[in-house]
Amino acid sequence: MGENHERQFTEMLERDRHLAAMVYDRVKAYGDETAFRHKRDGAWRAITWNELGRLMRSVSAALVDMGVKPGESVGIFSGNRPEWHIADLATLSVRGVTVPVYGTNSAREAEYIVRDAGISVLFAGNREQYEKALSCMGNGSPLRHIVVFDGDVAVDRERGAVNFDELVKPGRELSNGAELDARLASASYDDLATIIYTSGTTGDPKGVMLTHKNFFAMMYATGRYYQRPSKGGHSLCFLPLSHVFERAWSYGVMQYGMVNSYCPDPKLILEYFAEARPMYMTSVPRLWEKIYATIFERLQAASPRKKRLFMWAVETGKRHRSLRDAGARVPAGLALRHFFADRLVLRKLRAVVGGRPVSYNVGGAAFSAEINEFFNGVGITLAQGYGLTEAFPISVSSPEVGIRYGACGRIVPLMQVRISDEGEIQVKGPAVMSGYYNKPEATAAVFTRDGWFKTGDVGHVDSDGYVRITERIKDLIITSGGKNIAPQQIETLVGEDLYIEQIAVIGDGRNYISALVVPSFEALEPYARSAGIPFERPGDLIDRPEIIEFYRQRIEERTRDLGQVEKIKRFTLMAVPFSQENGEITPTMKIKRKVIEKKYGDVIDAMYRDA
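Request: output the structure for the sequence above.
Response:
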């Protein structure tokens, strides 16, 4: 007889009740054990559960002093750091609503969120974010107070700014005690926990409203798919906490009593892999694509003997993993070969991520089955999942339920999935948002009349319950010949290349597919020097015939298995990367195709002249 997920989820809600109450329960349970780890001034520092509880209480008291009322929005404009979670949990403790702002957002993007969500208090991470926050004040703005995490930032007190350190001075946690206790006692899992503004590729961001119950449903769904992590586990907070993926996972880390280490900048990931040595984390395909490409690029310089050893070890790892995942017996000969393959090669590859991976979640974009199989074969378990801010997660993979390369995992407990007549994935369940903030018409547009959320993704569920995504409805390219092309598939294939940083596929209403390609100059410059190609500045390389031919060959190799109508016929190398500042990509690095097509119209038109 199967598990009664509805009953077990209800028991979780009754036990944990509210995210802040859940964390305070863990404070009592784990005391002086480590909750968070972070680097400051080059050294790792720990925050115990008891310290976390005191800091939460202090900031909660300060928020009450600032006039934050139940249901009022408090923003966090910062990269990943312990203070992010402290501010978030303190806001939830006073029954406030946390509104994240991506640390990379422009002042204009931040101001839109401040005004739309009615943010009265905004936590800012560093000097740059503080200065942007200041520009959000005045002219009818709801913003009254700014709290800056970095202690060395001089703040303008007359404008309501203060440093975070002042909020957490010893003894502050003792103030407003009766009010804080009353608010937390009245808190419910039906309270609104957050408004997350989606980084949409078209139009203004929409604020996704998620309750505490929504987050508990996310935690329940993913927790059922893993051997229950324990307080001995270590997770790396890598993806932005402004994103639902990292946010929900981190709540789960706290629920299980694990240690959370913070990576403040994605560019530092290899350093943090080596030092934090995470057992768990969330990630995006781009991270693994780049690591994979770097490994194989370096392999090219190895001797023939080392190449053969490497490939033998990897193939041995894949065979061993496939049998183990299938629950099949591993023959003694293969087990012995795997022992030596691991000693000679595989464990060195695992050392790249710190040497003790248990399971790393991957999502947010299409992921190559080949790359996924490679890492799982060497013992770095990459578990692909699928979900949206509005409905997260829909499906997940894990070693416990099986990993099927090219699929997004199995449908999670409590989530219902159906496929519309048009092939769209539609979902229903307790993790689905309540709606878009202040946008009833937009909310109505994404729900069917019978209450199912329309994901906008085309896909299917196979006979074993694995979800497979084929295309994004809004992102489809329809050529002048009437062919439907999914650009993300092409961008994923080509973007895996070490020498390519970004790619935007073009072709809507055109007679063939073209692309704007931003080289990875970090990789291209050494190549150019070794090939004797002269240049003064990196941008000089994009017009060199040898470089253009180099990229043509790499693109053709990457897309060799695509149909003729899907192949890139022409491309242009770009000297300047697409940026969020210029409105060309979202905070989650998704291409804003319409913006790029308009901005680079002349460059694109040139690729279709005389065609």
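The two ends are 63 Å apart (CA to CA).
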